[in-house]
Amino acid sequence: MNTANFPWLTTIILLPIAASLLIPIIPDKEGKTVRWYSLIVGLIDFALIVYAFYTGYDFSNPDLQLVESYPWVPQLDLNWSVGADGLSMPLIILTGFITTLAILAAWPVTFKPKLFYFLILAMYGGQIAVFAVQDMLLFFLVWELELVPIYFLLSIWGGKRRQYAATKFILYTAGGSLFILLSALTMGFYGDTVTFDMRAIALKDFALNFQLALYAGFLIAYAVKLPIIPLHTWLPDAHGEATAPVHMLLAGILLKMGGYALVRMNAQMLPDAHAYFAPVFVVLGVVNIIYAALTSFAQRNLKRKIAYSSISHMGFVMIGIASFTDLGLSGAVLQMVSHGLIGASLFFLVGATYDRTHTLMLDEMGGVAKRMPKIFAMFTTCSMASLALPGMSGFVAELMVFVGFATSDAYSSTFKVIVVFLMAVGVILTPIYLLSMLREIFYGKENEELVSHQALIDAEPREVFIIACLLIPIIGIGFYPKLLTQMYDATTVQLTARLRDSVPTLAQQQEKTLKVSLNAPKIGN
Q1: What integer pLDDT is reported at residue 450 of this predicted model?
Q2: What is the residue extent of each domain of the chain?
Q3: How many C-beta atoms lie closer than 10 Å to residue 107's C-beta?
Q4: Fewest CB atoms within 10 Å of the CB: 133, 347, 351, 479?
Q5: Which whole number is the average pLDDT over 363-390?
Q6: What is the DSSP string of 8-45?
């Protein structure tokens, strides 16, 4: 087989979707055959992802690779167009990895197992497509595709308020998606030629005011998905009602779609507008970090506490995107991957703990460490990763964003000092609420009824295996970040150079038109 011409990305996207269509005809009432079938499909697709990038991807090439394009609606230049570069490739690998582990995490599901695994596999292909497609209208379609499985996974298998959480999720995300469609159509029809190819659109000479309007439209849509405060309220509700495997998909992959799209479309395709919006990005990122950390500290529901922690960590992604430095943007991409691994591990452990204690309220927990030492050890280790302990991937990612922003010459010294100080406050708040959480769950005041409960069994081998699979890359990246950064550095360096070209010509206008509470950027060198 000629690996150079083989349609790798199309196969990787369509395989789980096609496999999901066969699930209804599998003769299996209890779900035992279906879960093994789904796991095998997930493993095969993940193996194809790894093999495709191992054999056909050049890390030193910043441009799109594994490119495929097939005519769909020639009159509109609408094609099935896919490709991968340093921005999308790490997230495609992350999607395959997290989704396969989520399938294994769903092993106890016995209610409507065929429908559950059908939705998981359909979502698998849809999420990979979001990171791979290179056509604006096609991007909108696959973006919408992955919303449907999540809605049903929440509304059917969620907690007591699952209908409310699922409805809120679909209203927020579908409402934001309208801005993607409107912006995509506007960009595609702009100028003398009609095209929805992202590379062709990026070459169009958009007027500055037009860029700003498009940028604002995309920002609203992706602010919902990242999420950015105040468009974040769907996330704690969704996490509060989701099951463990759905948690893993939400925290591990779904939030990263928002960060990826902000880099791909807002920054890469509209660089002049990005120079205007960058200070706003930074301010919103700081708000995310501080507000969500304080809110997490106040939460008594375990799932909602971790959910707000996720929102806080996404603030570093925003600041890295707006840093105008190679190091800052590299840290933003690393933070997305790192949080995908850490968030998935924490939410899986929250689900495992709930299965045993049957409560999410910290006030009702306490003193279970002696009965569940393995879960205690895994929960503690993953929490250390979340609070950015040195030697873990979160530490490296946040440090890169810190240093990248602090060394940026696109902002005034005063602005940088204030932002770095507030980022540091957020970093200090994180261990406070995470360590207090661990203390209340495992070493708080003992709930005698809970501690004596027969269901408090320790972690099963399946659960230990899932956490081990997540901790290996978390620790590996923490000790050797180049393991990941070498995959995308060429692309982020090229993108940063393009973004920096837009700073000098716009900086003086920025100071006049952007009225933020802090100093606007000064003229870059």
Answers
A1: 65
A2: 8-513
A3: 17
A4: 479
A5: 88
A6: HHHHHHHHHHHHHHTGGGS--SSSHHHHHHHHHHHHHH
